[in-house]
Specification:
It is built from 8 helices and 5 strands. By secondary structure, the protein is an alpha/beta fold.
Length: 182
């Protein structure tokens, strides 16, 4: 893993990668370090106090687009339909990956035991979902190279992290502190 200095990523940092790869936790750690606000795109997409019920598209897009207009932010999440405008405002990108089995294990842990985790919806009505299990184990692994190509094509300063070991090294190198709960 080649690691740029954190300053090379600027004041508006995107964090992309599959579900349960550590994006939200990293977003909070980075935001604390650079004095920016962390945004979790999942929280724009889903209504609070629900079991991940989606907002109407117009509302979702408006929340996202208002957040990216801020001067400083760290934003985790994907949602490819909104990536073009996020890439246009971002000053750097971090792409996280790990084994889909590790992501699945983290999904089980966070859903069953981590009720006040970073990036959780207000109200904590989370439950295991077959749709999410299929997404993590079947769909996401097939999109890895497509996602990597899309992020690289943005031409922004990029840090690629391919395992939890590499992510731990990144935390250490940048002097980041993990905050696991809100």
């Amino acid at each position: 893993m080649d690691v740029l200095p954190l300053s090379a990523l600027g004041e508006r940092i995107m964090i992309c990668g599959p579900s349960n790869s550590g994006k939200s936790t990293l977003a909070v750690a980075l935001a604390n370090k650079i004095g920016a606000e962390p945004f979790h795109v999942d929280l724009f997409r889903h209504l609070p106090n629900t079991n991940w019920e989606q907002r109407p598209d117009e509302e979702f897009h408006a929340l996202h687009d208002a957040a990216i207009l801020r001067e400083r932010w760290v934003m985790d999440g994907n949602y490819s339909s909104l990536m073009p405008q996020r890439f246009a405002r971002a000053t750097g990108v971090i792409l996280l990956y790990d084994s889909h089995w590790a992501n699945f294990r983290r999904y089980l842990w966070r859903t069953l035991f981590q009720k006040d985790r970073v990036g959780a919806l207000a109200g904590n009505q989370d439950s295991l979902k077959w749709e999410m299990i299929r997404w993590i184990l079947v769909v996401q692994p097939t999109r890895r190279e497509r996602d990597r190509t899309r992020v690289r094509a943005a031409g922004l300063p990029l840090v690629e992290v391919n395992s939890m070991e590499e992510l731990k090294r990144l935390y250490a190198e940048w002097g980041l502190t993990r905050q696991l709960s809100v």
